[in-house]
């Protein structure tokens, strides 16, 4: 697989992993019914499939990152991590219906421009 593709997949999978984590924790919160003990939280984490999906996603993302980074300059690859901010912001607005104000969308636009400039180099 092309090293650039591996880096991009790693970054995207890491961003989606954050969505899985938030979704899993939200489900745990809803199921806990106000209990706040650490043991109840830990049991909920172990039983929550989205938490497992988060962990699996990060392991695969790490493997892709390592494989891609062997072939690419760090100065190219690392700034691409910032596209995760863009993906998480967009997915948070869609999946969780989070309110994203104009300043955050402006920041997402600036980050996106930076990623386009780096990816084109």
Structure in words:
This protein is mainly α and 121 residues long. The protein has one domain (3-119). Helices cover 79% and strands 0% of the residues. The chain is built from six helices and no strands. The longest helix has 30 residues, at 3-32. The protein is flat and about 50 Å long.
**Backbone shape:** flat
The major sheet is characterized as: none
The number of distinct structural domains comes to 1
Head-to-tail CA distance between termini: 20 Å
Structural class based on helices, strands and sheet pairing: mainly alpha
Tell me what portion of residues adopts beta-strand conformation. Answer: under 5%
List the total number of helices.
6
Rounded Rg: 17 Å
Helix content: over 70%
Average pLDDT figure: 90
Low confidence ranges:
none
Strand runs, count = 0
The run of helices and strands is: HHHHHH
Characterize this entry briefly:
The chain has 121 residues and is an all-alpha fold. The chain has one domain (3-119). Helix content is 79%, strand content 0%.
Relevant terms:
121 residues, mainly alpha, 79% helix
SSE order and pairing:
Blueprint: H1 3-32, H2 38-47, H3 49-69, H4 74-77, H5 83-95, H6 102-119
